[in-house]
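protien #1 (seq + structre)
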Amino acid sequence: MTAIQLHTPIPGPRSQELMRRRAAAVPQGAYHVTPIFVARAEGAVLEDVDGNRLIDFAGGIGCLNAGHRAPRAVAAIRAQLERFLHTCFHVTPYEDYVTLAERLNALVPGDFPKKTLLVNSGAEAVENAVKIARAYTRRPAVICFEDAFHGRTLLTLSLTSKTHPYKSGFAPFVGDVYRIPYAYCYRCAYSLRYPSCGVFCAHHLEDTFRRSVAAESVAALVVEPVLGEGGFVAPPPEFFSILQGICRRHGILFIADEVQTGFGRTGAFFACERYGVAPDILVTAKSLGGGLPLAAVTGRAEIMDTPGVGALGGTFGGNPLACAAALAVLEAFDHDGLLPRAELIGERFRAQARAWQQRWSAIGDIRGLGAMQAIELVRSQASREPSEEEAKQIVRYCYEHGLIVLSAGSYGNVIRLLVPLVISDEQLTEGLGVLEAAFEAVLEPRSQVVSPPT
């Protein structure tokens, strides 16, 4: 039996009714990609309130690497429910918080003592990482990157690059934040080509200290090992080692934002492992909690201990249910082969996407690490002009035909893969078939066979 089963047009009548209620009760700023209201979910499949079954290639925006209702996580949550729901770790602490911190300290790259702070969300974690970096270095400035996304709080929105819809209307932003180009080779800010460029964009950091902000004023550089909302851009292998070397020369902390890359998405627990770098501070969230709100800031012990007693924390940070779920997610990665599965999913997707690229000139770039893969759509492979409207049409075609996918990128023209790693081979094949049909429907009218760029 196929995973996709559609009993009504999408959205169905019940979802349409709920959409009308949502319009009256919820602000429009709380955007949603699909008009589908979910009733239940399991593994990599959703069922909506009209009884339609859809394959999920979005994974709650990367929060469900271990799958919807991962059995180990559900069992752990149920067991914790029998004990207690909340006490606040800052009032009466509990063992799972400490155990999870110990596990993360051991997992995060770096052969040095580490400590971990648990909070609720990726944005909260990034904000705390910057606070800790400023406290340790006693410097105010932060360097971030074009096309980055770090969150929606005032500080993290200041670090985020994309203007619409994220930043428009919310100024003024936090000062002492400086932005430099990322290693987005497909759209190089300097019109150079890798590898002959010598990774100029990384070495450009030194120029930033001469022209924008003094190195002795910079507390930290904050960077995503693979751009998330910026379009799943995976930089050249030496990019981060060059950046980290420059940071060390100037006493600047290297903060890796692994909110979307973390916990197995790239075929390693953390994408930094794929690049051979050990950050001073690493931030993770999303799939850490198996679907519950949880994030972590893990860093060198001497850095993490800089803020005084009571300077870090929050009422619900590292709540008991989320900690229990996270420990169960770690157990799933230990025993269920999810890391090699991420590699296999990525290989399947890339092979299919390369065939599509030969067929349709609108497929400009295919990129990613592990199961964190994406396709960038363009008007033509020669011009590389972004094609946002066609990305929107593909997302819509997919959900109308039983597949949930997400777009991304500063130009909104990237189709990204965030499928739960527990997806079966049959479900993956079926989902890729819908995506191919979407390309046929949207791109075929203007398609021509071309050779992909070298």
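ok now protien #2
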Amino acid sequence: MTSQATHESMWKDMTGVAFTQGYLDAGGVKTRYLRTGSDDKPLLILIHGTGGHAEAYTRNMQAHGEHFNTYAIDLVGHGYSDKPDQDYEIKDYAKHVLDIIDALGYEKAHVSGESLGGWVAAYLGIHHADKMDRLVLNTAGGWTMFPEVMERIMRLSMEAVNDPTVERIRTRLEFLMHIKSKVNDDLVDVRRTIYSQPGFPKIMKKILCLQEPGPRKRNLFTYEESGKITSPTLVLWTSHDPTASPEEGKKIADSIPGAQFSVMNECGHWPQFEEPEEFDKIHLDFLLGK
């Protein structure tokens, strides 16, 4: 008898997890979230990357909800959150995150971001230290400017939104993974549905401004700026990140006073999804100060 591959479902990721999906008003932006944990716990905000959505963290919600009031969000312009006609640069995303913290009634939050999310987290650490507890910069943008990477992200993203077929969506997601088979059908269909929303190509063009040389350059950090981060910080990188090498990640960590640096092997740009158990161990040990 020929064996069949097991279907990988996000519902399986969330089995046994008491979670909610909902919307909150963050400074006038209807903001979608996935949430685990409870109000009596410290706030943890998980932020996806460019063109992403809260499902980037479905495999991490249970472990983190045991210790934190955990919100995986759709950034403004992304997922099912509002998509206003505005600028989509780092300060604009940072304002959205600050408005979320305020809307939830917290004075400050732990913030962990992947790629674009890490770029936003670092900006918050530099400019709004009083609102930050611990920071995690997971394969974070914000320091490098590699034209070939920028062009590839723009091309794959626009192809996926202009023609949101299963094949094009899968190709965009496979860019994120070292082992391509980890892109499962459920993840493809979730993103295909998001990218099929009316008007999404227009908003994607705005989102991708940070892959254009001019806007990217004015949003990049100097190592002197990242030296202003005072929050305890973990810089988490991977062996096969498609946007920057572990050596680049180490430079970032070395520029932040007291930052920890960790590299996950056999992972690409989504270590929290690719190897969730290892990620959760590293991530929680840091966030809990172990």
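Strands lie at 19-26, 29-36, 43-47, 69-73, 109-114, 132-138, 233-238, 260-264.
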